[in-house]
Structures
1.
Amino acid sequence: MNVNLRGKTLEVLESMIKHGYAHTKSEAIRLAILNFEKDHEEDILVVKKLDRIDKEIKEGKRRLLNSKEALGVYAKHIKG
């Protein structure tokens, strides 16, 4: 695979090598990809959890609460 980098992306890549984070451009790109995955791992888990909750609601295994049910004894403190 060939990747053409220029501008800011090339600057970042060269900086990673200059500061010793990576020895080669290929290594720097691999590190960047792994770091991206690490940064977004929680987002992926949240989406999976929300999808599972939606499925359970559709299957009737879970129900949604209205605002009064969710607030419970505190509902009386809400005006309106």
Note: The chain is about 60% helix and 0% strand.
2.
Amino acid sequence: MMAISSYIVAIVTAWVVAQGLKYIVGSLKSHSFKKSFRQLYLSGNMPSAHSATVIALLVLIGWKQGVGSAIFGLALLFSAIVMYDAVMVRRSSGEQGKAITEMILATKSKVDLPRVAKGHTPIEVLAGALVGAIVGFIVILATS
């Protein structure tokens, strides 16, 4: 029987934990557990599941392969790109999409409304990274 890779366990666990926390935070903000259910599959909000998954993987690689390894360097670069993209690119395009939607509605244009994907604030990315680091260390303890 083949064992599941601890790297995959870290990634999946970090995503599930971050998405679960996103649901809880959304529920507390909206005062409704029913309304915040959509947080489980939408982009954006607290914490960043993307950041959690890449940091959980980074922590595990650093522990198992060493911080001097080539794969750790690659994982570090990958993590930095994902988190930069969440804050700078996706957040910006989400704000632009929201502005375009408002203009279309204000002018009563017949243009179809765009799908607006929300990015992350720096604090949401930082919170996701913290979740990922914690999950990474828990996976290390559980699989060592």
Note: The first helix runs from residue 6 to 30.
3.
Amino acid sequence: MEEFTLLTQCPLFSGIGTEKLRDMLSCLRARRETFSPEAFLLREGDLAQEVGLVLSGRGRSVMEDGFGEPVVLSLLFPGSLMGVFLAASRDHISPVSIQAQEELTALFFPGETLSAPCSRNCPEHRVLVRNYLSSLAEKSLVLNSRISCLARRTVREKVLAYLTQAAAQKGIDPQQGGEFSVPLDRNAMAAYLNIDRTALSRELSRMKQEGLIDFRKDRFRLLQIPGPH
């Protein structure tokens, strides 16, 4: 029941009634699978023709850099979509690996069932196709935000870029010094920014001491407006 509630709240199924969604899951040929911690849902080079939706647990998508070290590209939580771009691509060859960080359960749909109306041309499926296209656009924006953070030169610049984005997503005006929460713990934030966990903690402490930010656990406040950087 909890997993189905998550589905009804997922933007992919926005505007589709609960009863219609139950019927649609069969039409979409949905399959449910559970993965153990550290297991790979997908490996780089695999054929990826399905879109996944995380129901429980956490995971991450990674790519190896030129030295063979893993670079975290995205973090996955309940409600996260996986393989949105891959399922819509021509060759479907995955350039990344997706790995469970703890026991993870996901629902998978063939990409073809999300990108075109069904044979019955039902209105709910047309809504689903529009939602899928919106998910593609949203994923693109999220990726651009991540790239914007990673492109910064220093740890401080990466942190400020991330916090400024997080404040904007919460509708907080940094000039008013409003408090906002971030969805990532310190380990996840370090992975998202591709920096060392210790370096992140050290820089956050320095920024707090210098009066740039204030924070307590996942609650942050920008005390000085970051200029262009």
Note: The first helix runs from residue 2 to 9.
